[in-house]
Design a protein that fits this description.
The chain is of the alpha/beta class. It is built from 19 helices and 28 strands. The strands form eight sheets. Strands 3, 4, 7, 8, 9, 10 and 21 form a seven-stranded mixed sheet that branches.
Length: 658
């Protein structure tokens, strides 16, 4: 613990001289009486390596630092410090000492260092809140994405699918067939791939830690849980060296994310049989893989491994793959386009099937010895005559959903209610049922929709609610809704759209958030991508809205024709006003293009607005205008699409024959 800053550092002397000069001229605050000393409470990241002692747990002594400007000590609390927050943090870093101590006390302790936890920490530590924040990270509990050489958590601050997205981008830049053609060994090929993924993930983790350091957030490594006595003003943190420390805090935010759902009867071993987290640690490039699942994660990994040269078999329970994708929210034409691409890329789809049993080679983890998977019909029935009943593959992945990651946090002791899936039940302000009313939760721990974007928005909105005065909380708790009665204007039949997620999340009703099509865009990071925002034609019809739809093929715009012709963009609009109600895209950059679609829906733009707009040439955005024009001449548009589709089919057949 340090009593005064080291004035031997020239850079610190310059800062202090400037501080004193500005202070004496009342540039920041009125000068205090002589004979008083100001205590500056600095905050900094204390990155803990594995094996830290209890004295390095990130705990701070309330008055562990001071600058002696006058003769007498005037104690000040962190929240009442007269100095700008950025100056406190800068002086703390320049002093080079630690804030750790045995009386750690924070305004907010956040459990979980994924995107929700990191962004919530940054929001709380920065303007306008400037709170003392600690972020508790348990690397081995956060998705098994570790740099074993350094012991670093590569998933730090990243979404659940970070490894998959890194692998996806790597598969675009590295041609496995070319590396194999050069005679490289399989382990060398995989090392080349994984090195790129590590570099991408490491870059993100480093940047997140840099931002936390600048904001003055204290980072603590260890597994946090609530004490047995039910007290919610503290957390017990268990460290890797088996030491235990106590963190004192006024508020707690649980943001521990989600974990894969593991069906019974599957022998997960992290070597040959994986879930959607343990696949991050796969140590080889499989030449063949079977994947169970029809959701976003299953589709993403199917395309990733196919692009890396593996033979991929997708096992789905539904007899019609398009229907399975529609169940997760995709428009019927977008789903059909995605399925067509899976088939065109060579992915085999076993429909109406499930795994009956596994036979894993005993005592041999070499990937050259295939594991045997026996298939049966949906519900344990026999498969139709001629169907595949046995697969021999290098690896198996079960990607059948996720569930909140709330195990071992001792939530019951704190009086925190959970639902049947383990998700934390929250009310207004995203507050849990903890007796003291100071424990909040955000992100996947609440359940659906299991998206990083919505989780981050919830976490940031929660921080705003948490540290707002009571009189302003009513506005923050406003709830976004979707119905056919425009409450603002009182006009029956006009669609009311409020897509402000800061309001949607501030009421913190996860079920309504997941069901609101105007709350957030949804993206599938496959190749090609798929994304949507707003209503589908069926949803609009179910709401009693007379709706139409119009389509533009990627092959109808110049950039699509030349670079990526497979895909489409669909507009759903209200008749006869032409107001855009939804946008659905499948093709290159769909997850980027959807944000323009989101804006035109929220801004209540019409078909005529899009037709009158001028878009840059050779861009995918031209499809918005093409789709809008198609709604004005439906018969002509169908003929143009048919001609473009026929030319594209011929082109695809030509490429496949090569």
């Amino acid at each position: 613990m340090m009593g005064a800053l080291d004035l031997s550092k020239p850079c610190l002397l310059v800062v202090l001289a400037a501080v004193c000069l500005l202070h004496s001229t009342n540039a920041w605050v009125a000068a205090p009486p002589r004979g008083h000393m100001h205590t500056i409470h600095s905050r900094h990241v204390s990155s803990l390596s594995i094996g830290t002692s209890a004295s390095r747990t990130g705990r701070m002594s309330t008055n562990s630092r001071s600058i002696l400007l006058h003769g007498e000590l005037q104690k000040r609390s962190p929240s009442s410090s007269m100095w700008p927050a950025w100056l406190e943090r800068a002086l703390g870093r320049l002093s080079g000492s630690s804030d750790d101590g045995d009386n750690a006390s924070y305004d907010l302790a956040i459990v979980g260092a994924g995107p929700v936890g990191v962004q919530a920490a940054l929001a709380a530590a920065s303007e306008p809140h400037n709170k003392r924040v600690c972020l508790i990270d348990a690397p081995r509990e956060s998705g098994v994405l570790m740099n074993e050489a350094t012991g670093e958590d590569l998933s730090f601050g990243g979404p659940t699918g970070l490894f998959g997205k890194a692998l996806r981008d790597t598969s675009k830049s590295i041609k496995v067939s070319g590396l194999r053609g050069m005679g490289l060994r399989e382990d060398s090929v995989w090392n080349e791939i994984i090195s790129n993924c590590v570099e991408l993930a490491q870059s993100n983790a480093d940047d997140m830690k840099r931002q936390l350091a600048f904001a003055g957030v204290t980072l603590i490594e260890g597994f946090a849980s609530f004490p047995d006595g039910g007290d919610t003003s503290s957390l017990i943190v268990s460290h890797s060296d088996h030491s235990v420390s106590t963190i004192m805090t006024e508020n707690i935010l649980v943001a521990t994310g989600s974990k894969p759902f593991r069906p019974g009867g599957i022998p997960f071993d992290g070597v040959r049989v994986f879930d959607s987290d343990s696949i991050n640690a796969i140590s080889y490039l499989p030449k063949s893989i079977a994947i169970t699942g029809s959701g976003i994660i299953a589709i993403e990994f199917a395309k990733i491994f196919r692009n890396l040269g593996a033979e991929v078999t997708l096992i789905i329970r539904d007899l019609i793959p398009r229907n399975a994708l529609m169940k997760i929210g995709l428009d019927k034409d977008i789903a059909a386009t995605l399925v067509a691409d899976l088939v065109r890329s060579g992915i085999k789809i076993e429909r109406g099937a499930q795994v009956e049993s596994f036979q894993i080679p005993k005592g041999d983890t070499a990937v050259r010895v295939p594991l045997k998977i026996t298939l049966e019909g949906k519900g344990g029935t026999d498969r139709p005559m001629g169907s595949t009943t046995e697969l021999r593959v290098d690896a198996y992945l079960a990607a059948v959903g996720r569930k909140p990651n709330t195990s071992n946090l001792n939530l019951q002791a704190a009086g925190i209610e959970m639902d049947q899936y383990g998700g934390i039940v929250v009310g207004e302000g995203l507050a849990s049922s903890a007796r003291a009313g100071n424990v909040y939760a955000a992100g996947d721990v609440l359940g659906r929709p299991f998206l990083a974007s919505t989780g981050v928005a919830q976490g940031v909105a929660c921080v705003g609610y948490m540290f707002s005065p009571p009189e302003s909380r009513e506005e923050l708790a406003a709830f976004s809704s979707c119905n056919t009665d425009d409450g603002d204007e009182g006009k029956e039949g006009e669609l009311y759209i409020d897509g402000d997620l800061s309001k949607t999340g501030a009421r913190f009703d996860p079920a309504s958030l997941a069901a609101n099509p105007f709350a957030f865009p949804t993206g599938v990071w496959s190749s090609p991508e798929a994304s949507y925002f707003g209503l589908s034609t069926q949803q609009a019809t179910d709401m009693g809205i007379l709706a139409g739809e119009s389509i533009a093929l990627y092959a109808e715009c110049l950039r699509g024709r030349v670079f990526s012709p497979n895909g489409l963009l669909k507009l759903v609009y209200e008749k006869p006003t032409g107001r855009i109600l939804g946008v659905h895209i499948c093709g290159d950059d769909a997850c980027e293009l959807i944000h323009y679609g989101m804006e035109i829906v929220k801004a209540k733009r019409t078909i005529k607005d899009l037709v009158s707009n001028v878009y840059s040439a050779v861009t995918y955005h031209e499809m918005y205008k093409i789709a809008a024009q198609a709604s004005l001449d439906e018969a002509g548009a169908r003929k143009r699409r048919a001609a473009a589709g026929a030319a594209l089919a011929k082109r695809n057949r030509s490429q496949m024959s090569k």
